[in-house]
Design a protein that fits this description.
Elements: H1 3-13, H2 23-33, E1 39-42, E2 48-52, E3 59-65, E4 70-76, E5 81-87, E6 99-104, E7 107-114, E8 135-137, H3 143-148, E9 156-159, E10 164-166, E11 170-173, H4 176-194, E12 202-208, H5 216-225, E13 229-237, H6 246-249, E14 258-262, H7 268-280, E15 285-289, H8 297-302, E16 309-317, E17 325-328, H9 329-345
Parallel strand pairs: 3-12, 3-13, 13-16, 14-15
Antiparallel strand pairs: 1-2, 2-12, 4-5, 4-9, 5-8, 6-7, 6-9, 7-8, 10-11, 11-17, 14-16
Helix pairs in contact: 1-2, 1-4, 4-9, 7-9
Length: 356
């Protein structure tokens, strides 16, 4: 990963962007891509869009989602402990002993998820972490002290874990689902600009909000842009990680290239074009079947505006929805390269519809 992209990636990953509160991350992302686009806009709920060649009536979207999972403060006990509920798909199993940032109007307040010591647990009394028993300790002894810190019900809570590189091959951190996608689509924009590519269509580089609670940002922005084509990138599971069942989850491995999905929402003609592009340009890719839905923003784009030709390019990831999500740098390059080559070779007004 080159120095400038690495610096952007680390800054972006270190900026909290919880569901519904994505603006800090969106500012970092827009700051990076502004030199490579003609214009930008931000919609009502915070989805950020970089635009190239806006005057063209034929519109192509490349998209990732910007939000990360988090917690909400839900109840404050008389003793000053904080109970939480999910904001997105947060996993209570990883919470004990984690350090967190509570976002308040007064700034960040530090806290920890405590847990009973092993000495007082046994086979009969060995609780499993769940939303009722994971508790935040912010160093207060009563509700009044908590309030003085600016903490109230509704404050959002994020993990403070910072990204790192593992064996010079892997990028590790929280929120790579799907901040990695934002990094990759931004790099596509940079390469188009660097190579002075003049696209014969309008390109909309979309960083959507609120994917983690039901693909909501994509649902809103596709109605505004009304694209002809949408290429979405998100993460998928590395099923070679421990405790995965390949029969159930497929055979996907980090370091083996990006992943192309088969699903009802994925347009077959567009998928075939991506496969043709990958093959022609020697871009490594894997295949995945996604059954009824992809579970990604692809579904929102595909079923909008009377139907938008949509496809999904996924990035294999280990340990999803933990603070040590892990992706292979070469897989990121394969996603970037496939998107770039597809855009460079796409002709304006290409009709991916079926001919009977």
């Amino acid at each position: 990963m080159k120095k400038k992209l690495k610096e952007f990636a680390l800054k972006y990953l270190n900026t909290a962007s919880p569901v519904g509160f994505e603006m800090a991350g969106q500012r970092v992302w827009l700051e990076y891509i502004k030199p490579y686009i003609d214009d930008f806009f931000v919609d009502t709920y915070g989805t950020a869009v970089g635009v190239i060649n806006a005057e063209s009536p034929y519109k192509v979207v490349i998209e990732a989602h910007a939000d990360e999972i988090s917690w909400f403060v839900n109840y404050i006990s008389a003793e000053g402990y904080l109970h939480v509920i999910r904001n997105g798909g947060s996993d209570e199993m990883i919470a004990p002993s984690k350090r967190v940032n509570i976002h308040t109007s007064k700034g960040i307040v530090k806290a920890i998820f405590g847990w009973p010591a092993i000495h007082v647990r046994n086979e009969k009394n060995n609780p499993i972490p769940n939303q009722k028993n994971i508790v935040l300790d912010c160093g207060c002894s009563n509700k009044e002290e908590v309030a003085e810190l600016g903490i109230h019900v509704g404050c959002v809570v994020t993990y403070e874990d910072e990204p790192m590189f593992l064996n010079e091959k892997f990028l590790v951190g929280r929120a790579l689902d799907n901040r990695a996608g934002g990094i990759m689509i931004a790099e596509v924009a940079r390469r188009l600009h660097k190579n002075q590519i003049k696209l014969p269509f309008g390109l909309y580089i979309v960083n959507s909000v609120q994917e983690e609670i039901g693909l909501r940002g994509a649902e809103m922005i596709t109605e505004r842009i009304k694209p002809n084509v949408a290429i979405v990138t998100d993460v998928c599971h590395d099923t070679h990680s421990p405790l995965y069942d390949k029969v159930v989850s497929g055979d996907i491995k980090t370091g083996k290239g990006c992943v192309l999905s088969y699903a009802p929402a994925v347009h077959n003609n567009l998928l075939n074009k991506l496969i043709e592009t990958a093959t022609k340009n020697n871009i490594a890719f894997q295949r995945m079947a996604s059954s009824r839905s992809t579970g990604t923003d692809t579904d929102s784009f595909a079923y909008s505006n009377g139907g938008v030709a949509s496809a999904l390019i996924s990035l294999p990831l280990k340990y999803m929805h933990t603070t040590v999500e892990t992706v292979h740098i070469e897989d990121m390059e394969s996603v970037i390269n496939l998107m770039y080559q597809f855009l460079v070779q796409l002709e304006a007004n290409t009709d991916f519809g079926y001919k009977l």
